[in-house]
Amino acid sequence: MQFSIGTCAKIDQVAMVRQAEDLGVTHFGVGEGPLLFSDPYQFLALASQQTSTIQLGTMVTNPLTRIAPVTANSMATLNALAPGRTFLGIGTANNALRSMGNRPAKIAELSHSIEVSRELMAGRRVMHKWLGQEREVELLDKESGFYNVTDHIPIWVAAGGPRGLAEAAKYADAVVYCLGPNVEMIKLIRSKLDKAVADAGRAPGSVKLVSLSWFYQLENGETWEDGVTNGFGSGPISSCITNSGLMNEHRDQLGDSIVDASITAAQQYLGDPTAPDQPHYLEVWAKYLRGLDPRHRPIITKELVDYWCLYGSPSELREKSALMLESGVDVLQVFLSNPFTAVRDIDNIGRSIIAHA
Prior knowledge:
The chain contains 15 helices and eleven strands. By secondary structure, it is of the alpha/beta class. Helix 3 links the parallel strand 3 and strand 4. The protein is globular and about 60 Å long.
């Protein structure tokens, strides 16, 4: 079983990557939020020196907070520290840009950044558009140990919606999509990804589907409410924000109830930017991925938790994991929405899921 863990970078918790490796986790990624978390590349560089087999990458970066040559250099530098065990996770961004009061990247901006990063990370020269100019760029000294452009760096694209899937299918090694243990949703995304891969002229199965779920193991006597309070907190709302547009186009397959619930949660979280009493964006994001923001508790229903979260008793976690793999997921991934409890969650993942794979 390939199992990936994502969380935000907290620089004093690098040891949890070694913990995950010892328990059998195959990939570990950390997010980028300039106003929210520690710097991901400093975190990953430290983690590379404490581990030997686990794959390390961003989960995810974006094309706007770092331009493509900077991203390529950072990844190639990490690849020198951990040869052949790095991956570039990239998307249009949610928290990184919205927490600064800015829009996420456009699909075209994401595509160009990936194209440039891919070529640079492979040691090739490529045209880069920036500041209204188009110029050739290349990592110039490939022989002196500044970076590693020899070992391939896979690209994982965090996609949302049909356009995102279609673009990612052209160049990604893997597509990361917010998915829980719902068979219909998994099959819908699997079929769309497979079609997009075929339309791009690539071989069947050449792009892996990586699920992104929110995790919590229930202890004896705990309920789904405890999962929200003590585990994934406000995390499931991110899945609603990412998926609501695509879900609205497939009501007949997914059902009105979950579509409406996801759209409502996304709208309630983001609010109406034109409303005079709308909270400042810094206030909206101040507690993001730090457990449960009490303001969001009324938004998170059992229906949303069941749909977007990998949670339950140890036996239920194993059953749901197996179901997701059988339904079309290639790599199971959970995002730990609270770094302060990540050590506990990683231990539960190892003992309850991976040890029985």
